[in-house]
Write a structure and sequence with these properties.
Layout: E1 9-10, H1 17-28, H2 32-44, E2 51-56, H3 60-71, E3 75-80, H4 88-96, E4 102-103, H5 110-122, E5 127-130, H6 134-142, E6 152-155, H7 158-169, E7 177-179, H8 184-207, E8 215-219, H9 223-234, E9 238-242, H10 246-254, E10 258-259, H11 262-265, E11 271-274, H12 284-289, E12 294-298, H13 308-313, E13 315-322, E14 325-330, E15 335-339, H14 345-348, H15 355-374, E16 383-384, H16 388-401, H17 411-417
Parallel strand pairs: 1-4, 2-3, 2-5, 3-4, 5-6, 6-7, 7-16, 8-9, 8-11, 9-10, 11-12, 12-15
Antiparallel strand pairs: 13-14, 14-15
Helix pairs in contact: 1-3, 1-4, 2-3, 2-15, 3-15, 5-6, 8-9, 8-15, 15-16
Length: 424
């Protein structure tokens, strides 16, 4: 759909809007922190009149972030950060019921995805909320004249922060960026609990297999990998971890997982899940060594973690067995099952993170945008972490919503912590 008379958009079907609105409202029940922020934003309008582009997975949770940004007064445009992660009913609801321009269609081609990034840049943003840094990277490469108006950008993914660091090293990041992914209320919870649950949800929805007794190979043991490994073990799987970082490998080993190189794990695994943010961590020789029927998927941001071009080069046929399930028949007679075209399996085959987890992540995004505006002209052109007091406030709001109370320091404790004279 090219658009409506009232709101610019490119979505699948505006008639899905009512269904999407109900699901957005359902997600909001589990997002009390973001709701509180939206209510404050409604009164204070901290982003009044500012042009904002948000590149994110167009889900029910993202819709509630978009509502908060609009309540803050932002002139916002939303595009998808992944061709397979859009929920079409949500996109329609944002256009029809909330008046937010959306350019996102589930299953859109790479060409359409790129065109949506360029359409977003036509909005001439002053603030960018990015998920993978595609908007920022495209602007730097293709639209550098827009940089002068940029107040800053926020980035929610490990992959995007890696790209921002590369831009900083190359001297092309000339405005401040907030590494939302590095906030404690983001990576401790979103990456570990959100990715852990939603990834296995995607695997199960796509395949309907029993994980108990299976050997699950988790490629990468960052916060996402920890979550996947923990949840897979909780469902009865035997878990192998592969890593390149000796400290993370040591941690995985002491957490009770088998640790080995991917080349050794390839013949052993029944299910392989990549969560590294790097390229071709499962490569052509690894596919060739896997047992027939091995299931392979990715839960990292981009679809480059699996070398599917290499897999296709050693295959004689590819066929679709179920939605988001493709079988590659290899020359050696074995078959490999790929889920979600190698894209984020938790969003391709399921609904992504639970709303209660995204409540904190998107609270970080909303408050990071506000922080950039409040400190416009004061922040260096580098990658910043959201201040600790903001991180702690998000945690306090979440605890309050969960009816959880914690202790406070007594005056005596404060005095002891701030004194060097007191010893044992």
């Amino acid at each position: 759909m090219a658009g409506t008379a009232e709101v610019r958009c490119e979505i699948k079907d505006i008639n899905l809007a009512d269904e999407g609105k109900l699901r957005i409202e359902w997600a909001e029940r589990e997002m009390p922190v973001l709701r509180a922020i939206r209510e404050r934003f409604t009164e204070e309008k901290p982003l009044a009149g500012l042009r904002l582009v948000a590149c994110a997975h167009v889900t029910t949770e993202t819709a509630n972030l978009a509502r908060a940004l609009k309540a803050a007064g932002a002139d916002a445009v939303l595009i998808a950060s992944n061709p397979l992660s859009t929920q079409d009913d949500v996109a329609a609801a944002l256009v029809k019921h909330y008046g937010i321009p959306v350019y996102a269609i589930k299953g859109e081609s790479i060409e359409t995805y790129v065109s949506h990034v360029r359409t977003a840049l036509d909005h001439k943003p002053q603030l960018i909320i990015d998920d993978g840094s595609d908007v920022v990277a495209t602007m730097v490469q293709e639209r550098p004249e827009l940089i002068k108006d940029i107040i800053g950008t926020t980035e929610e993914t490990t992959t995007g922060i890696v790209r921002l660091k590369a831009m900083l090293r190359d001297g092309v990041l000339s405005f401040p960026a907030i590494a939302v992914n590095d906030a404690q209320t983001k990576h401790f919870f979103d990456n570990r609990y959100g990715t852990g649950q939603s990834t296995l949800d995607g695997v199960i929805r796509a395949t309907n297999i029993l994980l108990a007794g299976k050997t699950v190979v988790t490629v990468g043991y960052g916060w996402c990998g920890k979550g996947v490994a923990m949840r897979a073990r909780g469902l009865g799987a035997n878990v192998i971890v592969t890593e390149i970082n000796p400290i993370k490998a040591l941690e995985a080993s002491m957490d009770g997982f088998r640790v080995m190189p991917i080349g050794q794990a390839a013949p052993l695994g029944d299910i392989f899940i990549t969560v590294t943010g790097n390229r071709h961590v499962i490569d052509t020789p690894h596919f060739g060594a896997m047992k027939s029927g091995a299931i392979v998927c990715n839960s990292g941001h981009f679809d480059l973690e699996l070398n599917l071009v290499g897999l296709k080069s050693i295959s004689t046929d590819v066929r679709t067995l179920r939605p988001f399930v493709e079988e590659y028949k290899m020359h050696n007679g074995r078959s490999i099952i790929v889920l979600g075209e190698g894209r984020l399996v938790n969003l391709a085959a399921a609904e992504g993170h639970p709303a209660s987890v995204m409540d904190m992540s998107f609270a970080n995004q909303a408050l990071s945008a506000e922080y950039l505006v409040k400190n416009n002209g004061k922040l260096e052109a580098k990658i910043h972490v959201l201040p600790e007091e903001v991180d702690n406030e998000i945690a306090r709001l979440k605890l309050s919503a969960m009816n959880v109370s914690i202790d406070e320091l007594t005056p005596e404790m404060v005095e002891y912590m701030n004194s060097w004279q007191s010893g044992t």
